[in-house]
Design brief:
two-stranded antiparallel sheet, globular
Length: 350
């Protein structure tokens, strides 16, 4: 009930935001709302499934590039290539770019490609029963490999600069304040729908089995269930949510580049969830909003202190509030360090 009330208050504040926030802060809020969709996926696989992933940036980037490829093709002159391909000396459009001429295909791809990629990765890794820190290291290595590949393929991906210079999105000018406001409402609506859908998933038999796998995978296997399909499905859902977030953020910023989903951003995504509370979907939303607004304020006022601040915040949350902010609001214990109790000293007689 407390979580439902907190979520209702967050949605109400978000719905009224255009009436009391200036344009810059409203633009930030729209971007952070989209990022909260990704954070809910991290909360689902980490908090419910016990799968710590440091590579959600890969699926975020896939969603962003899927929608950006359509925007680049739509913005190019008829029969011509996107500008970065012309600068790189290409004369024909790569075959795998061609389907993205269709806007509907790009929207579906922004959801399907990250989900399928996440499912494939999970199947290949979990079928070998790799878990825990080993899986986290593999996902982080995947982020590094993906960003390196994109940067090295300048003629096909835009390289380090990524895909940028979008002017229109599906016939609407991105610089128009009305378009930006519409993107905000879309992001908020998707967040609410994703939250309600994930609540149903967590309350279903699938969610209960995933929770059981987290607490005792061998016991679940002993009871006759194969954990593999459940873990693969959970990771695919998280990947799809990350792809949706990537598409929305790309539309909001007008750019997608490897710097937006590299190793550091992927680790920050986990910190959002840890701060808010990984066991609760609303915790992922709250943590994302608080940490990102804090990042904007601290990096603007004290540019050199942000990394120290986020590191200190993570240490405090792990040591003092292991259940995050929402866990503390729900009345769960705070783990304050306590001095060791004095032990009686045995004194031998003469």
């Amino acid at each position: 009930m407390r979580g439902a009330i907190l979520f209702a208050l967050v949605v109400l504040a978000g719905a009224c935001a255009p009436f009391y926030l200036p344009p810059y802060e409203l633009s930030l809020l729209g971007r952070f709302v989209a990022l909260a969709i990704l954070a809910m996926g991290v909360s689902f696989v980490w908090g419910t499934g016990g799968i710590l992933t440091l590579g959600q940036g890969v699926f975020f980037g896939l969603g962003g590039y899927a929608i950006a490829m359509h925007l680049k093709l739509a913005g190019a002159d008829a029969g011509s290539l996107p500008d970065f391909m012309q600068w790189s000396g290409l004369t024909t459009l790569p075959w795998w770019w061609a389907p993205f001429h269709n806007g509907a295909f790009a929207v579906v791809a922004a959801l399907a490609l990250p989900g399928l990629a996440a499912a494939l990765l999970a199947f290949l890794v979990f079928r070998r029963r790799i878990s825990g820190p080993y899986f986290a290291i593999i996902t982080q290595a995947l982020v590094l490999a993906t960003t390196t590949l994109i940067i090295s393929q300048q003629p096909y991906t835009g390289g380090f600069n990524g895909l940028t210079n979008f002017t229109d999105a599906f016939g609407f000018p991105l610089s128009d304040p009305n378009t930006q406001l519409a993107l905000y409402w879309i992001s908020l609506a998707v967040l609410v729908l994703a939250f309600l859908a994930m609540r149903l998933v967590k309350a279903s038999q699938f969610g209960k089995l995933l929770l059981a796998i987290r607490d005792g995978e061998n016991r679940v296997r002993f009871l006759g269930y194969d954990p593999l399909p459940f873990k693969v499905a959970a990771f695919a859902i998280a990947g799809a949510l990350a792809g949706i977030a990537g598409a929305l953020v790309t539309l909001d910023l007008g750019v997608i580049s490897p710097a937006m989903f590299g190793v550091v951003p992927s680790i920050e995504m986990v910190i959002w969830v840890a701060v808010g509370g990984r066991d609760a979907l609303i915790g992922a939303v709250v943590g994302t909003l608080l940490v990102n607004f804090g990042k904007d304020w601290i990096s603007s006022a004290f540019p050199d202190l942000w990394l120290y601040a986020v590191g200190a915040l993570f240490v405090v949350v792990v040591t003092v509030m292991p259940q995050g902010i929402v866990g503390a609001l729900r009345g769960r214990h705070l783990r304050w360090p306590r001095p060791a109790a004095a032990q009686p000293v045995a004194v031998e007689g003469p």
